[in-house]
Each structure stands twice: as structure tokens, then as C-alpha cells.
Design goal:
The protein folds into 2 domains: 23-114, no CATH class; 118-174, no CATH class. Helix content is 10%, strand content 20%. It has one helix at residues 2-18; strands at residues 23-24, 35-39, 42-45, 61-63, 69-71, 103-107, 110-114, 126-129, 149-152. Residues 4-19 have low confidence and may be disordered.
């Protein structure tokens, strides 16, 4: 019984040693060769072995089917799974808009990047905030997190009933 407890203690200690989170500033700081950044130059070393399909925060690395970290592939590179392809993100970029990021997937064993049109763009319109979501000075409402939008032919030179000087100034003049 005593030998069993000692063995159990050793196994537990080894398992904990392999899962220790180590702070890092660059990939070179990590035994795995991958620093999963949480801020500009501050992160935690990615664990080994990793879980296939797992990605780092910046999307520069993915975990392959051999449970090893591998650098993400660029458009035009050969691939087997979508998760292998580099996905641009808004990591540490305050002016980034998610709509400006192309969709990336593995199609016919090649990483491809393409912009997806939203439901309004598919109709040849623009997605704009509903006109009742602005105050008199054209400041957006801060009452809720998700602001209601509408598809409008904004930019056609006609101030339609869903447009206003706040949500479509190119059609509705001050």
C-alpha cells in the first residue's frame, strides 16, 4: 500500500510538472516553441502535447494531428483541415473591424481567403443603424450593446424612409 501511494505521488507530480504554466514574451522562451500571447508581449507557453485543432490567440500556430504545434499556413498553402489556415484576427488592434477580416478555409486541400458579404451587401445595399438609434447630434445610442440595423440603399442619392442625416449622410443632407 505504501509503495502504491509513493507511485501515485510520483505520477501526480510528473503530470503537474508537464502542465505548469510558464510566462513568456516570445516563442523562444518556451519549450514548446510557442508563446500564446495574451497581450502585445506577454503570454503563457503553449502546452505540449496540444489538442489537435487548438489555435493560439494570435492564430500564428495550430496543433496538428500529431499533437504538435505547427506554424499556421497562408493562403495558397496546402492543407487538410480548416484550422491549419492562418486566420487574421483583431488581436491587439483597436481599430480592427471583424467585417474587414476575410473568411479562411481549406478548400480542395488549399488554404483560401475570401470576404463574405453580409445579408445587406448580398442585396446590393448597406447595413446601417436604424435611424431612431441616434440623438439629435447624430451620436449613437449607448442604451444597449447590440444596436438594431437595417438594410438600406444608402449611397443612391435618395433619402429613403429608413435613412436619415445620421445613418446615411451621403443621401440625407443636413
Amino acid at each position: 500500500m505504501k509503495a502504491f501511494l509513493v507511485l501515485l505521488l510520483i505520477i501526480t507530480a510528473c503530470a503537474q510538472a508537464n502542465n505548469v504554466r510558464t510566462d513568456c514574451r516570445s516563442d523562444a522562451d518556451c519549450q514548446s516553441g510557442v508563446c500564446n500571447l495574451m497581450k502585445a508581449d506577454n503570454g503563457v507557453c503553449a502546452a505540449e502535447p496540444c489538442i489537435p485543432g487548438e489555435r493560439t490567440t494570435t492564430n500564428h500556430f495550430f496543433c496538428n494531428i500529431e499533437k504538435e504545434w505547427q506554424q499556421s499556413k497562408l493562403p495558397g498553402d496546402s492543407c487538410t483541415y480548416d484550422y491549419e489556415c492562418f486566420r487574421q484576427s483583431c488581436f491587439m488592434n483597436a481599430s480592427c473591424e471583424l467585417a474587414d477580416i476575410p473568411a479562411v478555409k481549406c478548400t480542395d486541400n488549399v488554404c483560401v481567403s475570401e470576404f463574405q458579404l453580409n445579408e445587406c451587401e448580398q442585396q446590393g445595399m448597406k447595413k446601417i443603424l436604424q435611424k431612431d438609434q441616434f440623438n439629435a447630434d447624430c451620436f449613437e445610442s449607448l442604451a444597449q450593446r447590440v444596436l438594431p440595423t437595417v438594410c438600406a440603399p444608402c449611397g443612391n442619392g435618395i433619402c429613403d424612409d429608413v435613412e436619415s442625416r445620421c445613418n446615411c449622410p451621403e443621401d440625407c443632407k443636413w
